[in-house]
Amino acid sequence: MTDKVFEKAITKQFEFDEEVASVFDDMLNRSVPFYKEMQRLTINFALNFLEENDKVYDLGCSTASTLIELSKHSHSKLDLIGIDNSEAMINRAKKKAKAFGVDIKLINDDLDNISYENAKLILSNYTLQFIRPLQREKLVKKIYNNLRNEGIFIFSEKVISSNKILDKQYIDEYYEFKKTQGYSEFEIAQKREALENVLVPYTEEENKKMILDVGFDHCETLFKWVNFATFIAIKK
């Protein structure tokens, strides 16, 4: 379905409800520049680390697109687990996984309530940015503690610039991208207002510092387009 969520005046802050879940795949593809390329790189790099029966968690899995693609491209059987606190998203994910014939354990719960035991790979695509900073760092520490040695954490985030001039240019460039995807200025403004104080982005440097501070041995940017970035972190 086509994303038309913000064609009408907003009445509440952004949330991943049934209305958003029903158009989420279209929203991602039209709202996140090079989303498919980011997903492709995530899967390709992840597969270099994964072996038979390795456990993979996707935090904020939404409609399970990344786990489905990972399964399709893996030559090994993987233990796939998707977690999302949106019941609407999990319901969509279950239907999609069934349609593609992919075995995924899908859990509707808060990320803090899950124990990511024996994880070889943990994914988080545009999820941490919706978690308050203090809780975000606690979750990243939990991710580190539960990863096996040689495990990896791949995550994507919207980022800001510490330079005000560049940050304004980031925003302008992103809005121009959204216009090319068919979104009107009204829709763009409505979504920005709905996300105010809901999505709290870090700079690229702050994301890396957070990762290294909890104990990861290495973190670098795998992909970046203006204010969207994908990072890979390794636990030795």
From TrEMBL:
Catalysed reactions listed for this entry: prephenate + S-adenosyl-L-methionine = carboxy-S-adenosyl-L-methionine + 3-phenylpyruvate + H2O
SUPFAM superfamilies for the chain: S-adenosyl-L-methionine-dependent methyltransferases
Residues annotated for S-adenosyl-L-methionine binding in this entry: Y35, G60, C61, S62, D84, N85, D110, L111, N125, R192
Record-linked InterPro entries: CmoA, Methyltransf_25, SAM-dependent_MTases_sf
Family label: Belongs to the class I-like SAM-binding methyltransferase superfamily. Cx-SAM synthase family.
Organism: Arcobacter arenosus
Protein name, entry field: Carboxy-S-adenosyl-L-methionine synthase
Gene symbol of the encoding locus: cmoA
Function: Catalyzes the conversion of S-adenosyl-L-methionine (SAM) to carboxy-S-adenosyl-L-methionine (Cx-SAM).
Domain of life of the native organism: Bacteria
